[in-house]
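Before the break, one more example. Copy the sequence into your notebook; we will annotate it together after we see the structure.
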Amino acid sequence: MTDVDNRPIEGEIVREVHLKVSPKYATIDVIPKEDGEKNDTNFPHNLHNAAELFLRVGMVTNAERLKDCTEKMMNLYAENPDGRTGMKIGKASICWSCGHCGIPKDYDEQNNNSVGPCFNCGEMEQINRLKINHKERSCKEIPWIEIPPLTEAESKKKEEAVLAAKRAEIETNIKTALEERASEKNT
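Here is what the structure looks like once it is written out:
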């Protein structure tokens, strides 16, 4: 907080945060719930507004997560995906508790009316549906796409592979060091 003449209040920690969000975020609408959000003039209409809101109230981590999730989706679209290979496709939501944007946990493509729970934190209430508008295409709305997270078995297998690679690297380094030491003794 600052006092009337915009000087920091004593003891306040002031930090500047620069988070660049693309103007394209404004093409992703946040759909208000019927319970009064539609009539709320302060309700963020799109992801650009949502990022601004997070920053305005000091929820920097949420703004960064929103940016990361949205950039990943936009980068996937920039690569012209085929829509079938290793992609999770559906309707996305924004979580106001953690800032996560993406397809909800346990999303079923057949029953895609579910808004939550949040894939990141499990929140059920503080969530709104997102609608991605695309003016250049014949359809007005395009689906959210993301790379699905690894299953528990896949995560364990990946972790084991990383550990095995590190172990092999260490063993190679030790072998090389021993060979160098042996050649130095012979010289």
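Residues 152-186 form the longest helix (35 residues). The first strand starts at residue 28 and ends at 31. Try to locate both features in your own notes.
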